[in-house]
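Human: I wish I could look at a protein chain and see how it folds. This is the protein in question:
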Amino acid sequence: MKKLSELYNTLDDRLIKGIKINSKEIEPGDIFVCTMGVTADRHDFIDEAIKNGASAIVVSRDVGEKSVPVIKVDDTNLELRKLTAKFYDYPCNSLYMIGVTGTNGKTTVAEIIYQLLGENCAYIGTNGKKYKGKKESIRNTCPDVDRLYKYFREFIDNGCNTVCMEASSEAFYRHRLDDIKYDIGIVTNITEDHLNIHKTIENYVDCKCQLVRQVKDEGYSILNSSDKYFDKFKMEAKGTVVSYGYKDSDTLKIEDYTLKRDKTIINFKYNNKTYEAISPLLGSFNVDNLGCALLCLLCKGISFDDIIKRVSNINQIEGRMEIMPFVSKYTVILDYAHTTDALDNILTFLDMVKDARIITVTGSAGGRESDKRPGMGKVVLEKSDYVIFTMDDPRYEDPNKIIDDLVSGSDKTNYERIIDRKKAIYKALDMAEDKDIVLIAGKGRDDYMAIDDKYLPYCDYDVIKSYYEQ
């Protein structure tokens, strides 16, 4: 806690216990900052915030007399970043900051780094907030600033010295990360995504570039030499630029690998020496993900021999090629894949290792770029033996219309539609026979279903587990 007079030029010494931008979450002692959102002006919620106990209000326009101190600033969005950093004692200055961005793979890479670095590292991303064996779900891959800096302080207070966080393009677009300087910035790959927000691929790439622009001069920018936009990122990157991939010029070269159904054997070349790693992570895409994560640890000063010892102990990444351990006769895999590229990668691998059929359950989110749906549907229909199309966060769109888009890119008929996602998953599991693979794609371990403007409790993992507990 801090006194209001420690935060602003005032004689008011009332204690401030927190900073919030959501009036519904205000508790007695909080400052309410009236930021300007894309669709909401939080000045409209001042009275609700005061009713809920706000001790002070930060505004950027005249709001009249209020029953609590009103502090006027030029830009509340900018002020939020400054205020939270000051309130939480500039936590980024005490943490080794690792940021991971990219269309696909950022969750897996960030989770691998988190696991390999051990108990003094914390994680923030799609799979929640994790540190010291604790886990908590969070709504956004990259939280709003008021939560983000609070988490950073929480990590420090609990003995963490490193944070590995997913840095989404939307977070850069919303300026949530503008004041963070990264020790290591990592770019996995770029394919088209989130164009509903960025409008063009050029804008999307530019937002992703912001991560490596914010790398410290003494830090490292880790790039994927196989990515189409490698040269663009290299030109924008700060710090020492290093790369991973399949070229002799790469800092960490992937020499070759052998894919198996239960493991992957990879030969890496680093400083003219070859190292063999046996990874529990499956698929060629996870070869790249692992290489990226290993290069991060090398940049942090950890020896390759030490890193190799840790690799075999990597746990399955939740919602990423996650094999359900409570199924035996056939294989059930949960994966977050929701782009054409990600679905193609995972289904290509499953086709290589399958002994019987691939049954896929998938959909496409509503309110997002609909032009990617025909390509997604085509890949799924051509690389699966049977497909059940279902809802996946339809928001305000009709799920049937979304499925119409998905099936429009192929003339194949090896599918059915079951709008209710739980029923769709149950149907796939009912169909499964000995040695089949059931892939449930799109939502991973998300704990909600977005319908209209509501986030209803829902989780694919819980649905799968409930099927076997009947």
